[in-house]
């Protein structure tokens, strides 16, 4: 009989089917079910404030998974996420508030429209690489934001648009708890889709493009198709996240989608781990909670250093920048790698390797 | 016609400041393949230091400017050594995010020390407008143009004749060959960052004299990107020409198109042009095309 107190010291697969599973070991499968159960039950015992925070984390995670498909897995840097979130949010707002469509139709539409816009701005990606592409997406950010804030007739200009919470029949998702479950369902679906995507032909092609695009082309991967496809798939999820965020805050306005947001999302996937689906979730939680924790810390210390709360905004920026730099220097593969290191340590314990 | 000339001159002046800041950006890219998203914050810090020296310590403008430049140079050195050194040879995204992180830290520090409100430089240049034929120019614009031209001239000579300048060009051309000739590549990187910080500070002080100083001045750091891309990221003449072109286009858009759409197009136009340029010339007007091997 197996000793229940020791872990397997490696994954040994004896056939391809085993090797291609998402969760390779039964124990991991159970852990995932357990995690889902915990997060599904969490709102029953926590306060509205915590549930609200969790919802924001989850929405950020959906967008971050989208961005990670593009930047982490396909290697195309995008500084335009903020604007794409805006496209999603505004599409949903216009469809529901102005045209009277139901949220359940408007949200997928928001994803699709954002995907089209993303694909459009992804077109230059065949000829542009690295830095040049990053700056082209920055241009997308500036141009889209300009259109959003100036096209008053459709977008409501700088005042923005007011949204309502989604409804099913007579039930509206007004409470924090119900919206959390909505977000959670979509997050789980997104995660499963993305995990599966990278077990498929398309996903493998994405990774090949990231690792060396010319080599990928030599091996018969249509670079143009897959690069644009990466933009499309990634923008779809970002659009969905934008729509969810819009209906959660119940307002969309241009300043919600500034370049700071784009940078925040890049920081999320960087801190979480480039090219890691779960890393995107860890990163989203980390970066979303960073200012919250910082504010709590400042409030705690305000008795001792009363001038601290006056410089809170500055402190937030400094902390945000420091987190990025420190992660880049000490753990470029992010929280996902740290978690893996911890697991590896216990897997081999008491030996070091 | 008057209006056109007026816009042209304004555009050239602002464009020349862009050219100066873009020069620092290109310099860093050329020597160390790093992209500096914190250029705007360099500019901000240099400007604030100069302003504080003038207003709080009553130091004359020229002396304050020199001290601010010295400070910027030291800041550039320090940042290169502490933050950027670990990222040499790392993928583009690490470099981009490192400088974005750096810009966030610097912006936060500026907020903490100097707060948010707009400050103005005390009157340094006379406010008696100068008449050139039919157009009227504020002296501060003329001085800015003059200072920028002098700076660009100094740097051109520096790159052409000084030992350090030649070493920098050699490093940009081929790092390994430069190293084997006994050039300290690390020293070159440090000098490139120091120069970048210096030119940004000069640009910031000039713009601060024109528009007043607040945190939004660092937006120049983003505007420099279209300038640098337009001219080609690794071309110094490209940065200068790109700066002038973008400056003029911006000013013309502000003069002729903004009244039609209700403002704001001025800030977006450089990016629209950027997209078009990238479609047809992915390496800018004067950039060197990269040849990749598998």
Automatic annotation (TrEMBL), chain A:
GO function term, MF aspect, one: branched-chain amino acid transmembrane transporter activity
Membrane topology value: Multi-pass membrane protein
Primary location class: membrane
Transmembrane spans: 28-45, 51-70, 77-97, 103-123, 130-148, 179-198, 228-250, 310-330
GO terms under cellular component: plasma membrane
Domain of life, per lineage: Bacteria
Keywords (A to Z) from UniProt: Cell membrane, Membrane, Transmembrane, Transmembrane helix
Localization of this protein: Cell membrane
Keyword Transmembrane helix: yes
Cell division as UniProt keyword: no
Name of the protein in question: Amino acid/amide ABC transporter membrane protein 2, HAAT family
Source species of the chain: Mesobacillus persicus
UniProtKB/TrEMBL annotation, chain B:
Gene Ontology MF annotations: transmembrane transporter activity
Signal peptide range: none
Keyword annotations: Amino-acid transport, Cell membrane, Membrane, Transmembrane, Transmembrane helix, Transport
Membrane topology according to the record: Multi-pass membrane protein
InterPro entries, per database record: ABC_transp_permease, BCAA_transport_permease
Transmembrane residue ranges: 6-28, 35-55, 61-79, 91-115, 135-159, 187-207, 268-286
Pfam assignment, any one: BPD_transp_2
Localization: Cell membrane
Family per similarity comment: Belongs to the binding-protein-dependent transport system permease family. LivHM subfamily.
Protein name as annotated: Amino acid/amide ABC transporter membrane protein 1, HAAT family
Species annotation: Mesobacillus persicus
């Amino acid at each position: 009989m197996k000793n229940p107190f020791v872990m397997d010291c490696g994954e040994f697969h004896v056939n391809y089917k085993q090797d291609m599973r998402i969760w390779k070991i039964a124990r991991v499968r159970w852990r995932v079910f357990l995690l889902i159960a915990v997060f599904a039950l969490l709102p029953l015992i926590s306060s509205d404030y915590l549930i609200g925070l969790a919802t924001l984390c989850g929405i950020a995670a959906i967008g971050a998974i989208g961005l990670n498909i593009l930047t982490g897995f396909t290697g195309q840097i995008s500084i335009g996420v903020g604007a794409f979130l805006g496209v999603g949010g505004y599409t949903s707002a216009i469809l529901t508030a102005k045209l009277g469509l139901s949220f359940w139709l408007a949200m997928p539409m928001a994803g699709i429209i954002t995907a089209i816009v993303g694909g459009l701005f992804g077109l230059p990606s065949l000829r542009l690489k690295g830095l040049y592409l990053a700056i082209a997406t920055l241009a997308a950010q500036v141009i889209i934001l300009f259109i959003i804030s100036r096209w008053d007739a459709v977008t409501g200009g700088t005042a923005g648009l007011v949204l309502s919470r989604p409804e099913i029949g007579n039930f509206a998702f007004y409470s924090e708890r119900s919206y959390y479950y909505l977000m959670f369902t979509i997050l789980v679906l997104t995660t499963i889709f993305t995990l599966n995507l990278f077990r498929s032909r398309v996903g493998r092609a994405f990774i090949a493009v990231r690792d060396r695009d010319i080599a990928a082309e030599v091996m018969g991967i249509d670079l143009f198709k897959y690069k644009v496809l990466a933009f499309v798939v990634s923008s779809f999820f970002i659009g969905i996240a934008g729509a969810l965020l819009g209906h959660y805050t119940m307002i969309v306005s241009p300043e919600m989608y500034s370049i700071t947001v784009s940078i925040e999302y890049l920081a999320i996937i960087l801190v979480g781990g480039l090219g890691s689906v779960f890393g995107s979730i860890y990163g989203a939680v980390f970066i979303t909670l960073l200012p919250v924790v910082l504010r709590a810390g400042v409030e705690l210390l305000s008795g001792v250093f009363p001038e601290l709360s006056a410089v809170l905004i500055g402190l937030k920026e400094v902390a945000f920048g420091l987190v990025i730099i420190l992660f880049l220097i000490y753990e470029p593969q992010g929280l996902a790698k740290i978690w893996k290191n911890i697991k590896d340590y216990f897997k081999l314990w008491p030996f070091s390797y | 016609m008057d209006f056109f000339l007026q816009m042209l001159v304004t555009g050239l002046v602002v464009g020349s400041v862009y050219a100066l800041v873009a020069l620092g950006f290109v310099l860093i890219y050329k020597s160390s393949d790093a992209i500096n998203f914190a250029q705007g914050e360099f500019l901000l810090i240099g400007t604030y230091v100069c302003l504080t020296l003038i207003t709080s310590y009553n130091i004359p403008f020229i002396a304050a400017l020199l001290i601010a430049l010295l400070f910027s140079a030291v800041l550039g050195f320090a940042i290169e050594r502490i933050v950027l050194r670990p990222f040499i040879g790392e993928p583009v995204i690490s470099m981009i995010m490192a400088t974005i992180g750096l810009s966030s830290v610097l912006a936060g520090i500026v907020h903490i020390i100097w707060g948010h409100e707009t400050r103005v430089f005390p009157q340094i240049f006379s406010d008696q407008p100068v008449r050139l034929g039919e157009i009227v120019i504020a002296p501060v614009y003329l001085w800015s143009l003059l200072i920028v031209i002098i700076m660009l001239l100094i740097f051109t000579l520096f790159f052409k004749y000084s030992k350090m300048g030649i070493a920098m060009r050699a490093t940009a051309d081929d790092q390994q060959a430069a190293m084997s000739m006994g050039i300290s590549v690390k020293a070159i990187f440090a000098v490139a960052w120091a120069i970048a910080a210096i030119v940004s500070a000069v640009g910031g002080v000039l713009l601060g004299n024109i528009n007043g100083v607040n945190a939004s001045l660092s937006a120049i750091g983003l505007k420099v990107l279209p300038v640098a891309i337009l001219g080609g990221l690794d071309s110094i003449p490209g940065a200068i020409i790109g700066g002038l072109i973008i400056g003029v286009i911006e000013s013309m858009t502000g003069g002729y198109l903004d009244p039609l759409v209700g403002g704001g197009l001025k800030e977006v136009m450089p990016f629209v042009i950027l997209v078009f340029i990238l479609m047809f010339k992915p390496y800018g007007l004067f950039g060197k095309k990269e040849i990749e091997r598998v």
